[in-house]
Amino acid sequence: METEKISLGTQLFGYQLDNPIIPASGTFGFGYEFADYYDINILGSISLKGTTKEARYGNPLPRIAECPSGMINAIGLQNPGVEKVRTEELSKLKRYYSKKVIANVGGHSFEEYVYVSSAFNDSESVLAVELNVSCPNVKGGGLVFGNDPEVLGRLVKEVKKSCTKPLIVKLSPNVKDISEMAISAESNGADAISAINTLLGMRIDLKTRKPVISVGKGGYSGKGVFPVAVKMVNDIFKAVSIPIIGMGGISSSYDVIEMMMAGARCVMVGTANLIDPYACKEIIEELPITMKKLGICNLSEIVGCASI
Amino acid sequence: MKKEVLKVLSNEKLTETIFEMRLSGSSPMLPGQFVELLIPGFSLRRPFSVAEYDKGILTIIYKVMGRGTEEMTTIKKNTKIDTLTGLGRGFSLSGSEHPLLIGGGIGIAPLIYLARVLYEREKSVKILLCGRCNNDLIKQEEIGKYGEVFFATDDGSCGFKGNALEAAQSLFKQTDHYYACGPMPMLKALATNNKKGELSLEAHMGCGFGACMGCSIQTTDGPKRVCKEGPVFQAGEVIF
Ligand SMILES: Cc1cc2nc3c(=O)[nH]c(=O)nc-3n(C[C@H](O)[C@H](O)[C@H](O)COP(=O)(O)OP(=O)(O)OC[C@H]3O[C@@H](n4cnc5c(N)ncnc54)[C@H](O)[C@@H]3O)c2cc1C
Ligand SMILES: Cc1cc2nc3c(=O)[nH]c(=O)nc-3n(C[C@H](O)[C@H](O)[C@H](O)COP(=O)(O)O)c2cc1C
Ligand code: FES
Fold this sequence. Notes:
CATH class of chain A: Alpha Beta
Number of helices of chain A: 9
CATH topology of the largest domain in chain B: Rossmann fold
Distance between the termini of chain B: 28 Å
Number of helices of chain B: 5
CATH class of the largest domain in chain B: Alpha Beta
Mean pLDDT of chain B: 97
Distance between the termini of chain A: 28 Å
Structural class of chain A: alpha/beta
Largest sheet of chain B: 7 strands, antiparallel
Oligomer: heterodimer
Bound molecules: flavin-adenine dinucleotide, flavin mononucleotide, FE2/S2 (inorganic) cluster
Number of strands of chain B: 16
CATH architecture of the largest domain in chain B: 3-Layer(aba) Sandwich
Low-confidence stretches of chain B: none
Largest interface: A-B, 34 and 25 residues
CATH topology of chain A: TIM Barrel
Strand order of the largest sheet of chain A: 3-15-14-9-8-7-6
Order of helices and strands of chain A: EEEEEHEHEHHEHEEEEEHEHEHH
CATH superfamily of the largest domain in chain B: Nucleotide-binding domain of ferredoxin-NADP reductase (FNR) module
Number of domains of chain B: 2
CATH superfamily of chain A: Aldolase class I
Strand content of chain A: 15-25%
């Protein structure tokens, strides 16, 4: 097989993505700072930092704890607020990135989710809104929405009434049955599912005998969560028919292919960007070579092929 | 920021817990900037200030604090280390003819390079080295080449007996600008007392180059990232 015949392209909501690689929300800022390192136009799309109605500072430091195969974060949704994101951050990004992006939305109430997600209705460069219903960092926030299929369904329904962009619902892994959540999102109008967000975790400083993270716990991500994510993406694939964006611990082109075989149409790469700022670029460059090795011409042929 | 593979030229013990590592192949670094080393077996990079830089050769001085820095002490000459160089914004190098440099403990490390650059720019440099005891006051001789050095120790084993702020009081009168690096309580005490200076801060980092918001502090000008807008901040802007 010749490398030229290999196609990385994929479609999401009728929009052509040059490849299925998308930096995950919270690990790529608002994108433009990475333009100092490489031409970010090679990316399939970009999921922006989680955005709320008002500006937020987030949690006190330390917000980061190392784990043997990843990290724990408790950023607490630091962002400049939706107005600034819409007007300033998106236009800064437009100078470096000519494709469409995904706006990631967080919230602490139904009203806030509805407000923030519909604030992007007229933003031309926004391909879709990704609803973070699972941020485990914010007190009284994410956990509630993402943990109960009934509440989640109601939230999706409410948001769909006023948000005109395609809606991606990003699921939490910290639930009893993730397929139940996916079904609830789909039946209430979600256009796609992304999964997984971070797993709840905690590290203890052996000298101070206290948690490393200021607020105690945080969200675990990185290589160590990969097998958990593959299984959950496959569970979701078997439960719904809308597209799935798979993520959790992806750090190589091999991981991308495995995640797609589990059922993902595209993938997001998170923590890997933090350890190696060139991670997405390297994965995109590796992908056709790995596909060739494995005899894959077209990525769409492998989506969900591993389901039994 | 650059991702580079640096080669270890040496990795030597300075005191019981403090080591000096010299690495070759680094892009230019300014005083106050930092690097992040990926230590095999650890998932996050470790940040270290540049203690000296000359023609591609970078020196860091590190204190053994936990498992990562413990592992670093075993790194042999010629080992290749995946490194991010040129991180953060360093100290301002102009604006003061009579700068005072205040280093507490391992916070002395970045002041060595700073002192040399200021000395080469013909500033009249004063340097205050602070620690718990004489053993903490590393690189006395080297720093002595670049200016007038003063010492302060908690136990009085070297120089003034007392803390950095007490020792700095009389020196503040002879300077128009200070640069400080050291433990948070020391920086807070200095900044509360005197706003005409710059502080080099530390924070646990997810990335080191501005992507994760893991290191954001609060300032009078809104949140700022230690790794990107810092690690050097104006003494007056940091909200402790
Ligand atoms: C900008 C900057 C410059 C620094 N310069 C120096 C220097 O020149 N010399 C020196 O000895 N030390 C310096 N430090 C501190 C040094 O990074 C930590 O001591 C080191 O990361 C500890 O690693 P460990 O694995 O031994 O400790 P562990 O406690 O086992 O580390 C666990 C995790 O916490 C992080 N961590 C722990 N303490 C700190 C800390 N104080 N700051 C940041 N992250 C921490 C580690 O990086 C790691 O991810 C600097 C820190 C920053 C942010
Ligand atoms: C520092 C950090 C910040 C994050 N912030 C967000 C966020 O704002 N919104 C969101 O939906 N997910 C956020 N996430 C979760 C990631 O987008 C991703 O779902 C998760 O980290 C798993 O992927 P990974 O293992 O590749 O990192 C964050 C993750 C990290 C590490
Ligand atoms: S450590 Fe990631 S933004 Fe500073």
